């Protein structure tokens, strides 16, 4: 959600652009700006900024700035930080601007920030006056025709704090505009870095039609700036293919280099045409100095030149050639130069994003490294005959890896052909809105009452595919790349797109090989997976075979493998069938080619083993260790690291992408191993046996593991009603588990454990710990993917305590056939799911199965480790049974308690105390269920005599109360006969002599107390008015009749106001002496709703308006419902006057609180009564301009100009009575005006005039005395 700010400053069309800025300390763990950056995008006369953090969520972090009629120039946005501020420089075709914002480190008192959310630097940007002369300047030379607009620009902050803007003028010169430092006074200066020929400069500003030529040869098309010691160098890449370096200090060109000299061939052809798309980038470090990268955009011969600036004596400079790199791509979007690499983004012929990088120093082959960009969503969705089209399309649309919310919202607006704006919708709410919209569209098109199922299904596919195509179109637009950003501090690489930001993550070695093109695999000789060249050769050959398997696998067979994993079939058996199908349909001899390539692998068993080792997720590391010995500020920083919603979404998608890639890899490897079993000519029988008994089962388990990871990372969390959450919290307290506020596993559970493990062996004191993005994110992903085989059981526990039962059941289902870790824990959480769905018997079965693993698994041991009844049990299994019994009792399942307690008794053969407790439990629940015979048997089985007597006493009392004496006397009560008689006599005696019972032993009825109320005539009148109001409400709004029947006078006023019966509400208020404020506030709110939403619901509005007595006026204009509502409000304010116009005050307060302008008639009426109170209202709601205008008018009124409008009978004069001003409010206004940079000069002048006249009058009076 963006904050909109408009700057009015005054057309060549420039391409959309984007850029990014990372804070200097963004790579330091203990900094408030860690992992924090700003990115922006421009389009026409609008630029939008977004500040993001991977550690904390930022509030008010987006702003959209529009500068009407002033187009943003290429390179026209620059962000730099100083010690106290973040300064944004903006260059447009007609003006330059500077925004001075507070630095994050100065928005908080220290780097130790404990909040889960933080304010962005853009929070108070609305208070800035962007048109202030000190921070903006209109370019005098840009007010002519379109041909006079600059072609490109650059901006920077000097060491002295000045803001400098370099603009490439059409004459070929570079104009530099300098604004003084923001905290110093000064004037704007303009200088021009001139060309040698005066006639060339004059011709440059002439219109093209007069000048005759089409372009200026030395017109700069790309600018870059670098400050070196006391001078600033401006580098200009020009249309004549030459690079010029200007010194700002000496205002002269120090260096000119023809870039065509670095082209190997075809210079003459290129030189004949002016450059249009060349680009220039700089990189500086203290170790290597200043490097330049120049992209020469030549059709079919584009190249990058990397040069290094070398200084010699007498301020002479030269460029040393480092490298020339060629590219086959055509349309370059952006590129970035780093210390060792060039990163670049292109658009290919299919308008798809292509990203690559290359080392410009150590790359002898000139091969670019491919970046695997997430592919666009499929153009068509396949819907099976047995599948519901709506469910399939919704799954595809709302999958986390396919569409952004903004693309779906835009498609929804177009599809509905309406003006509704959808903002702040959750993913689930948006899904419901899409479903309703498409289904309504479908129902509206149906003209027949009867459809066969197949016709209706085809109609569903038609409408859902239409909406899907609309989403696809907007997703393509929003996915258009605009720029590339690399954080110097963290090495994080981002592609800035039109609608969102794509983060580039490091690719694991095994994934990189599998995803690489065949050309890359053929050209590579080594791989980080293997230790020597021979093994590298084998692995590369093996991966090529996997790629061939992938390409030869038909869609139906791939679907069969996917379906087999879903249906829990054996992947080994299914892969055998798939291989048979491939062999049977091998028309192109692809399988034979794969078999031939397998023969080239020298040691296939070792190569396969290495691949499986790289894919293996099993770990012995402890991921939930805690390091309490670290200082507090370190622990707080670690608890926030990568904790924002942006980071959670990013890592969730990264896990999903990794799991999807490795699922395919394991699938292909499994098929390949099955092929090896058939043709294993170059391996021994022992190796084939190892392949069959070890490698294939391992690969099958890995396939299931990655499939589970993929499914869980694609699964969305469900919203849980509050009552279910409260009930679940109570059940968790029985199990002594903690409810987590947010169901995201990574954000609340895994992240803290992972960070604790990563930094357990590091010294993170001081500000020396650097957050290197590729290394950190790789570690996080590696540890995060370990959870299926991790003994800590964090993920299923997180699902259980957050009531995500459907997701948890799916997880347990997918894990069941292959996972040998936490078997008992999975059975326990599945039992908890069954309890939540009301399947008690299934839950009991799961709890019984989990009992066998209680003393082996960490999660189950945690359940039993802190039990309050630990002293009563001797084994972990009995502790576990006690916990489950308490859970079943808390839920209210006595039958299951009896069954489980009976089972637990067999475990407590040698523990009489546990047996006594269990028999007592069985007795209690049998007795509650009315199973008297079973309760008696449990009583007699109890080995503890004291507990036995307690149970006996309870049995006698309950049976006597239930009048079930026949059951009582038929029990034998061996060795307990005397106690039975004593308890029975006591019970009967107490029943007979109880004052609460009659002579029959039944409970006596409560005595009826009589009371006489004396009512006067006025009381009867009040009751009549109240009853009449109820009747009126029931007639106007029949559904409210049930509520109105028992409502008192105050409640009735609220109901009448809600329904719109304001006349009746006012009558009721006057009858019962109630305040009229609720009535005026309710009517004001209805006026606000009508003002904002218009008169769409005409019938309902006119109904409640007709129920009130509207004042009659003569008018020739047709009145709307909104006008009538405002007229009714004005009528009430006039009819019901109040002391100090308090009703006027409450109406104005209501309007201002909703941001609705106050009507002039209301302001005029109120300021005549209490102008000071009106001023205070303006100040409360930051209406500074209105407040200033009111004070100016009020001072004029005191001085005699318009005094009748403020209720002033005698204005200020030498003979009039004393006058006064609300000085406290005026002082507050002046203070706010100075802070918001709004010009308060008029107000100060007016007050100075008033004080002068007061002083003059006071002196006359003193002299008169």
From TrEMBL:
Start and end residues of each NUP160 middle TPR domain: 787-981
Main subcellular location of this protein, as a coarse class: nucleus
One GO location term (cellular component): nuclear pore
An MF annotation (GO) of this entry: structural constituent of nuclear pore
Superkingdom of origin: Eukaryota
Domain NUP160 C-terminal TPR: 1016-1265
Alphabetical keyword list: Nucleus, Transport
Pfam families: Beta-prop_Nup120_160, NUP160_helical, TPR_NUP160_120_M, TPR_Nup160_C
InterPro entries xref list: Beta-prop_Nup120_160, Nucleoporin_Nup160, NUP160_helical, TPR_NUP160_C, TPR_NUP160_M
Domain NUP160 helical, chain residue ranges per copy: 532-738
Subcellular localization(s) per the UniProt record: Nucleus
Record-annotated Nucleoporin Nup120/160 beta-propeller domain positions: 36-510
Protein name: Nucleoporin 160
Organism: Cyprinus carpio
